[in-house]
Amino acid sequence: MRAVATEGSPDFVPVPERVAVFDNDGTLWCEIPTVQLVFALDRVKALAPQHPDWRTRQPFKAALDGDMAGIGAAGQRGLVELVMATHAGMSTEAFARLVADWIGTARHPKFQRPYTRTVYQPMLEVLALLRGHGFRSFIVSGGGVEFMRVFAEPVYGVPPEQVIGSTIRTEFHIPQGSRPELLRLPEMDFVDDGPGKPVAINRFIGRRPIAAFGNSDGDMQMLQYVTGAGGRRLGLLVHHDDAAREVAYDRQSPFGRLDRALDAAPAAGWSVVSIQREWQRVFPDD
Q1: What SS3 class is residue 263?
Q2: What's the pLDDT at 198?
Q3: Which residue spans adopt a coiled-coil conformation according to this UniProt entry (predicted)?
């Protein structure tokens, strides 16, 4: 940190070029269960009376039954169908209100605290350290961008314009007798995961970051892009290996799988941080 922020250092980086990128789920806060998926499942239950066919139609039946294996069996297509049915058909402002209301009351099933208190204390400290050295930190996540923007600033100190995520299509709309709005449509626009992350970084940031933080194979291409250029650079993977204080998962997990990136880390020079061995405190309230 000191090397890139000290004028006269051979590794000095001007302030405008001090950019760091962070995955969200499993890197900045808990990933099991995936918070936005829990939100979608709660929305399915709330909307089910309006859709009686969901009781017999997959993946909605699995969602209503709490059958996570059935939801997993539906694959990405099934997850997209759940998201489209529960996240679209409303204005962006209405969706933000839904997310804010939900996240204000929802609790993590294992830790029995708000999801906004299952953020990782060491990562909050990293964000603060970077800010203190002139860095701009961006969230680059597979999660929905408008979902994350509701809480990113109060929880992480990352403003909404520095949040990049997956998007569904929106269109400009003026309801009769009302003010203009953006309407969320039931159609995917962009999936910000895997190789999509470097594309999104270039599209929305316009600079190659010099630090990247992730936790899964979905972050691998982002770390490759960030660390695969010259100069002093940092790539870091959070390894979830603490079943007692958090959750232990890596190579076989259906969510947040860390397999290929874990194998690539030594040759790439990426740091792999063990939650069990290297984090004195996991959550702020611990």
Answers
A1: helix
A2: 98
A3: none
CB 246 within 8 A of CB 240: yes
Q: Report yes or no on 38 lying in a domain.
A: no
137, burial (CB in 10 Å: exposed 0-12, middle 13-18, buried 19+): buried
| Structural domain contains residue 62 | no
Question: For residue 226, with 0-12 CB atoms within 10 Å meaning exposed, 13-18 middle and 19 or more buried, which class applies?
Answer: buried
Q: Is residue 132 part of a domain?
A: yes
Three-state SS at 130? helix
In a domain, 83, yes or no: no
CA dihedral 90, 94, 100, 104 (to 10 degrees): -90
pLDDT tens digits, 195-235: 999 999 999 999 999 999 999 999 999 999 999 998 999 99
Q: Name the amino acid, one letter, at 155.
A: V
The domain total for the chain is: 1
pTM for the predicted model, two decimal places: 0.95
- Dist CA 221 CA 270 (whole Å): 13
Mean pLDDT taken over the chain = 95
Question: Quick check: bond before 109 cis, omega within 30?
Answer: no
**Residue 218 gets which letter from DSSP?**
G
CATH number at residue 253: 3.40.50.1000
Pairing relationship of beta strands 163-173 and 136-144 according to DSSP bridges: parallel
DSSP 215: -
Interval 143-166: pLDDT, tens:
999 999 999 999 999 999 999 999
